[in-house]
C-alpha cells in the first residue's frame, strides 16, 4: 500500500491487529474485483482477478491511485 499523507503500512496494520481478510478485501474492492468492502480470504483472491479487471484497475490507478483514506482505515479497524 502506498504511503500517502502518513497512511499506515502493512506492518503497522498487522501490529494493530487488523484482520488480514480485511486488507485483502480492501485491495479486492480497490481493483474492482468486489462491489463492496467486505473481508476476503487471501485464498479466494486469485479467483476474482483476471486480465480485464487488472487492465481496468491500471487505467484508473494511473489517473487516481488508491489511497488509504479515513473511510478505508475506519473499515479496516472495525471488529
**What is the average per-residue confidence, as pLDDT, rounded to a whole number?**
89
Helix proportion of residues, in percent? 40-55%
Let me know the largest β-sheet.
Answer: none
**Unreliable residue stretches:** none
Order of helices and strands: HHHHH
Radius of gyration: 12 Å
Structural class: mainly alpha
Instruction: Count every helix, treating DSSP H or I runs of 4 or more residues as helices.
Output: 5
The outline comes out as globular
The beta-strand count equals 0
Fraction in beta strands: under 5%
Terminus-to-terminus distance:
21 Å
Q: Describe the oligomeric state of these chains in a short phrase.
A: single chain
List the helices and strands and how they pair.
Layout: H1 10-15, H2 20-31, H3 45-48, H4 51-63, H5 70-76
Short description:
This protein has helices at 10-15, 20-31, 45-48, 51-63, 70-76. It contains five helices and no strands.
Explain this structure to me?
It is a single chain. The chain contains five helices and no strands. By secondary structure, it is mainly alpha-helical. The radius of gyration is 12 Å and the shape is globular. The mean pLDDT is 89. The longest helix has 13 residues, at 51-63. 53% of the residues lie in helices and 0% in strands.
Amino acid at each position: 500500500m502506498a504511503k500517502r499523507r502518513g497512511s499506515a503500512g502493512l506492518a503497522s496494520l498487522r501490529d494493530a491487529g487488523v484482520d488480514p481478510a480485511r486488507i485483502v478485501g480492501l485491495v479486492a474492492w480497490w481493483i474492482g474485483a468486489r462491489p463492496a468492502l467486505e473481508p476476503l480470504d487471501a485464498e479466494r483472491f486469485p479467483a476474482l482477478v483476471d486480465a480485464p479487471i487488472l487492465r481496468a484497475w491500471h487505467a484508473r490507478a494511473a489517473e487516481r491511485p488508491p489511497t488509504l483514506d479515513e473511510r478505508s482505515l475506519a473499515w479496516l479497524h472495525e471488529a
